[in-house]
Amino acid sequence: MPAPDFATLAAQVAELKSAGDSAYDDSRKGLIWNKRLDTARSPAAVVSTRSAEEVAATIRFAALHGLKVSPRGSGHHYGAAALREGGLLLNLGALDFIEVDAQARTARVGAGVLGGALSERLAVHGLAFPVGHCADVALSGYILAGGFGWNAGEWGAACANVAAIEMVTAAGEIVLASEHRHADLFWAARGAGPGFFTAVTAYHLQLHPLPEAYAWRGVFTAGSAPALAGWLTAATDASPREVEVGCFLFDHWDTGEPAIVLRVSACGASEAEARDKVAAFATPPVRAGLIDEPKGEAQPFTDLFRLSPMPAGKRVAADHLWSEAPLGELLIAVHRLRAPSPHSTIDLVAFGGHSRIALPERAALSLGGGTGAGIYALWDDAADDDANRAWVRQVNEALSPLRTGRYVGEADLTLAPQRRAECFTPEALERLGRLRATYDPGGLFFAWP
């Protein structure tokens, strides 16, 4: 292979910083959300693109010079999956266009579009999409992993609301994949996560009428878990499937004491309809220790992001698992496991009727569960790395007897190769392997983290 002449590629793309350039470190660090890992690995170059044609040029350059490619949308990934050793870090963040056809209720959006920006833009047209819970998550990796976002109980996984996907293959070919064209690629792009083997540049979305939203919140002492567990399970079972029930364990923002924050939200055609859906949670057990008085309020759909903030600029370790156990049973399993950092949280999320989020009929996204458990350690000092990572493992072990699978978008796939098998059905994982061999036989795209 000829030695890479990065000056040649730099002339074809928006920006290129190669290892050794004065701005290389700042460029690399600025693209990775998890500050524990933003310098953990060193690409040969960071390439920023503004169009599918520039992406294609980058991929053809990589193939010519024997370089691997790692696409990156917003960099908001707990394991920094886009940051690999050697090869090209392909930054798609500038692909942030949004084209809305309000009459058809569709949109064509760039892979780098952030959920918050998309939600605001769609609301102008009275429309909405099941964006991720954090405003700074781009559609790229979110939809590739399947996407479990706002109002998913009604609208299903985000990738179930995608009609077509624009991508660039390892051969440098720009293709449009759908159920009817390049169906194998369309199947894989909806759920393969960081194991996908093309560079996605745009999504064609199916939209929904903008709903009204209502949220109820109650804050209790961590010691209230035994009093809350049975009621929490019963109220969840009694609610419509569109209701999202979040049970969060972290240190209270004012008192600093271990707390259980219950956040229940629902959407509807009117505020009254949304409020009625969360009615089962109106009266928590009197024996539960209150920190903050329960309250409910109407919220614009575009403000739901405020209910689940994930601070930026932190060192992070995370994991995820699916379970069919009742929400209260998972709460009992972890309520005594206090994190070393006050920023860390255990997020237990279920939907009304203890129902599963609807998955596409034909997609790599093939596993879900009645309850999702996200384990998120966030801290500031590198000296605390070991303690916080150990806490994540401790919580995972406490929940393991109840585990039925994992979510590829948030599970720590670096811990063991068999982890990826916990994210898919055996048939889906085997098919992903066959498709990778077909569409990327030379291994141009980095494989699983």
CATH topology descriptor of the largest domain: Vanillyl-alcohol Oxidase, Chain A, domain 3
- CATH class descriptor name of the largest domain: Alpha Beta
- Helix count equals 12
How many domains is the backbone divided into? 3
Biggest sheet features? 8 strands, antiparallel
- As laid out across the biggest beta sheet, the strand order is 15-12-14-13-17-18-16-19
**Overall average residue pLDDT:** 96
Distance between the termini: 25 Å
Radius of gyration: 22 Å
**How much helicity do the residues have?**
10-25%
> How many distinct beta strands?
19
Q: What is the global morphology?
A: globular
Structural class by secondary-structure content: alpha+beta
Unreliable stretches covering 5 or more consecutive residues:
none
Instruction: Estimate the strand proportion.
Output: 25-35%
Assigned CATH architecture of the largest domain: 3-Layer(aba) Sandwich
The gist of it:
The protein is of the alpha+beta class. The chain has 12 helices and 19 strands. It has 3 domains: 86 residues, Uridine Diphospho-n-acetylenolpyruvylglucosamine Reductase, domain 2; 112 residues, 2-Layer Sandwich (Uridine Diphospho-n-acetylenolpyruvylglucosamine Reductase, domain 3), CATH 3.30.465.10; 207 residues, Vanillyl-alcohol Oxidase, Chain A, domain 3.
